[in-house]
Amino acid sequence: MALDYLSLLNPSQAAAVLQIEGPCMIIAGAGSGKTRVLTYRIANLLEKGVDPFNILALTFTNKAAKEMRARVEKVVGPAARNLWMGTFHSVFAKILRSEADKIGYPRSFTIYDTQDSKTLIGQIVKELELDDKLYKPSLVLGRISAAKNKLISVNQYLHDPAIKADDEAALRPKIGVLYQQYQQRCFKAGAMDFDDLLFNTNVLFKEHTDILNKYQNMFRFVMVDEYQDTNYSQYLITRKLAAKERNICVVGDDAQSIYAFRGADITNILNFEKDYPELQVFKLEQNYRSTKNIVWAANSVIKNNQAQLRKDVYSENEDGTLIEVIKAASDNEEGKLVANSIFEDKMNGHLSYDNFAILYRTNAQSRAMEEALRKLNIKYKIVGGLSFYQRKEIKDLVAYLRLTVNQNDEQALRRVINYPKRGIGDTTISKLITTADEANHTLWEVVAHADQFMPARVSNPVVGFAEKIKSYMVVAGKEDAFEAAKFIAKNSGMLEELYADKSIEGLSRYENIQELLNGIKEYVDDPEREDKSLAAFLQDIALVTDSDLKDAAQEGEAVTLMTIHSAKGLEFRNVYIVGMEENLFPSQMMITSRADLEEERRLFYVAITRAEKKLTLSYATSRYQWGNLRSCEKSRFLDEIDPQYVNFKFAAGPGEASPFQHVFERRSNLIPTAPRKVQATKYVAPADFTPSDTSKLQAGQRVEHAKFGFGVVSALETQQGTTKATILFEEVGEKVLLLSFAKLRVH
Ligand SMILES: Nc1ncnc2c1ncn2[C@@H]1O[C@H](COP(=O)(O)OP(=O)(O)OP(=O)(O)O)[C@@H](O)[C@H]1O
Ligand SMILES: [Mg+2]
C-alpha cells in the first residue's frame, strides 16, 4: 500500500521526501520535521524498491538511530532491520571489521575506550619521564583527538610549524612525540581508539580505491541527521562515499551547532553547496513542536548571532502561555521554586512527570535540583550523567570525609589510600589487608602502624597517609563541617589533581567538588541547625546517597534532568532552563571570543526549542562559590528575549501563598524563606575606568577591577596561551579571573 505522504507531511517536507536522486540539503529550523523527513524518505526509498542494504543513514546518537529505525519499521515492516543505520562510529567500526587488514590492522582489532587511551598515555608519559602534571592524559588525548578529527597524521603533526608553536607556547612541546608513541603502541596492540575509527576509514578509502568503490556502489543513498555537528573527518567520509552516485541528503540546522569544542565544523554546512553545485535545497520553516510564543522567543534570541543562514521559523500552533522567568534568592531556593512549579503544573494540568524536563549548562547544577525534587517526593531521572552523589570525584571526597569521622570505614579507606597517587601500590594494599585479617586487626590499625612490619621504603607513604587522616580528625574536632571539608579537599591533594586537568570532563569534576563544598556551607549556615559537625553532615547525606537513589532510579514516570547538550533532538511538554546567570550560561570558560559566545547562544536556542507548550527560565541572585556567598547577575541571554513573550515571576515572598502551599508544607516543611542577605558591594568604579596593559602583571601587585574593586594578585597561571589570575579582593574575596577579559587597572 502506497503511503499518502501529503497527508503526513506539509508540501515542502513532501517535496524533500519525494526528491530521491541527486544531492539534497534540508536546512531547517528546530522542530520543523527534519528527522521526520529523513524517516519518511527512507520509507519512500524502500517502497520504491530500493534494497535496504543500499541505504546508509547516519545519526548523532545511538538513541536517535534506534528511534529512527523503529519509526521506519512501523511504516515499512521488518525490511527496516537491514538498513545501515547508526552513529558514524558504529557504522565505520563495522566496515573496518571486514577491511582493517588492508591497512595493516587485524580484523579483530580492539577498540580502546577513553579510559584505555588515557591509561596508555599515562604509561608513555611515565616512560618518557615527562612531567605528568603538565602532560595530563586527558589533556594529551584531547590534543591528539583534535588532530585526528582534522585528519592531521603523526607526521604532519610533528612537522607543522604552527602546531609546534602552539604546543611550545603551552609549555608542552612533547605532545607530537606522545602522539607518535601512542599511535605506534595502539598499532602494535592491534587497537584503535574512537577517533581512529573515523581516521582509519579515511585512510582506507584514500589508499584503496577498489574498496572505496565497493562501498560507493553499496551505499547508493547516504543520509545524515544533525549534519551541523559533523567534524572534518566525518565530512570527508560522507563526501567520498557519495562521490559516485551523488545521492546524498543531509539535514541540519546551523542555529543548533553546539559541538565546536569537539571539532564540529559549521562550515561543513556552508560548503555543501560548493561540493554539489547541482544541489537541491529545501527549507522548512514551520515548527510543529512548539507554541507561537516559544518559537518567537527563540527567533528573537538567535537573531543576535551574526554567523547564521537566514531563516524565519514560524508556528501555526496556539500562542500558548508566556515564557516564565523565575528569580530566586539562592540556588537552593531556585531548586525549590522549580520543584514547586513542576508539582503545581502537574496537579493543575493533570500531567505526568514524563512531561517535564529540567535542562542545565553543567552537570554540577543538578545537586540543588535533585535535593528539591526529593523533598517533594518527585521522581526524576538523570540522562547522560550520574546523579550528583554517584559521581566518582564526589564519592572520593566523601570517602575522605567518612574516613575522618570513622577510621574503621574500610571501603572509604581502600578508596582513597592511594588517591591521589602517593606510591602505595596494589601489592602493598593486599599485604595490608592480609596482615589485618591474619592478626584480627582493623585495616586502619594496620595502616597506622605499617612501619612495624614493612620495610621503611614501603611503609613510609602508608604511615604518611595515616598521619594525614589523623590531622583531619583534629581539624574536624575543632571546626565545622565546611571548614573541615575544605581543609581536607585541599590537603589531600584532590583539588590540585582536579584543577590540573583542563579537559571538559576535568573541569566539570572540579566544579562538582566546588558544588559539594557549597552544599556543605549552606548546611552549616542554616541558622536552625544545631549540630554543624562533619559527622552530622555525613549522616544527613547518607540518607541521600543510598536509599533515595534507588527510589529515584525506579522505572516509571519521572522528570528528566540533563545538560542541554544531551537534550539535542528531543522534545518535552514543559521545559525548565535553570541557572540563567552570567558566567554560568553563557559559561565563563567558554566566552573568550565572539565565536564562543555565539556557540553558547546556539546552545540556548537548542534549549528553548525543546519545549512544546511551556518554557520556564530561572536564575538565582546569589550562589555559593568556594563557600562564599556570591551575588550573581542574570544572564545577558534573558535580556535578548523579546520582552513581549516573557512573564517575569519573582520569588514568592512570605505573604504570597500558593494554592498548593499547604501541600508543600506538609510534604517538605518548606517554609517560604526571605531572600538571603547578600553583602552589597560598596565599591563604585570611577567613570573614567581604563584598563592597564597586564602582560607583565606579577603576583603581589595591587589591581582594580571595574566590578570587584581593589585586590591583590595572589597567583598567575598560564596554560595554552590563556592566563588566569587569582586575586584576593578586599570586598568580595578570592576570584579566579581570565586575564584577557578581566580589564584590570594595575596600581
Ligand atoms: N507535517 C507534520 N505534521 C504533524 N506533525 C509534524 C509534522 N512535521 C513534524 N511534526 C512533528 O513535530 C515534531 C518535531 O519534528 P522533528 O523532531 O522531526 O523536528 P526536527 O526538525 O528534527 O527537530 P530538531 O531540530 O529539534 O532536531 C515531532 O513531534 C514531529 O512528529
Ligand atoms: Mg531532529
TrEMBL record:
<keyword id="KW-0347">Helicase</keyword>
<keyword id="KW-0547">Nucleotide-binding</keyword>
<dbReference type="Pfam" id="PF21196">
    <property type="entry name" value="PcrA_UvrD_tudor"/>
</dbReference>
<feature type="binding site">
    <location>
        <begin position="28"/>
        <end position="35"/>
    </location>
    <ligand>
        <name>ATP</name>
    </ligand>
</feature>
<feature type="domain" description="UvrD-like helicase C-terminal">
    <location>
        <begin position="292"/>
        <end position="569"/>
    </location>
</feature>
<dbReference type="Pfam" id="PF13361">
    <property type="entry name" value="UvrD_C"/>
</dbReference>
<keyword id="KW-0378">Hydrolase</keyword>
<dbReference type="InterPro" id="IPR000212">
    <property type="entry name" value="DNA_helicase_UvrD/REP"/>
</dbReference>
<protein>
    <recommendedName>
        <fullName>DNA 3'-5' helicase</fullName>
        <ecNumber>5.6.2.4</ecNumber>
    </recommendedName>
</protein>
<keyword id="KW-0413">Isomerase</keyword>
<dbReference type="Pfam" id="PF00580">
    <property type="entry name" value="UvrD-helicase"/>
</dbReference>
<keyword id="KW-0238">DNA-binding</keyword>
<dbReference type="InterPro" id="IPR027417">
    <property type="entry name" value="P-loop_NTPase"/>
</dbReference>
<keyword id="KW-0067">ATP-binding</keyword>
<comment type="similarity">
    <text>Belongs to the helicase family. UvrD subfamily.</text>
</comment>
<feature type="domain" description="UvrD-like helicase ATP-binding">
    <location>
        <begin position="7"/>
        <end position="291"/>
    </location>
</feature>
<dbReference type="InterPro" id="IPR013986">
    <property type="entry name" value="DExx_box_DNA_helicase_dom_sf"/>
</dbReference>
<dbReference type="InterPro" id="IPR014017">
    <property type="entry name" value="DNA_helicase_UvrD-like_C"/>
</dbReference>
<dbReference type="InterPro" id="IPR014016">
    <property type="entry name" value="UvrD-like_ATP-bd"/>
</dbReference>
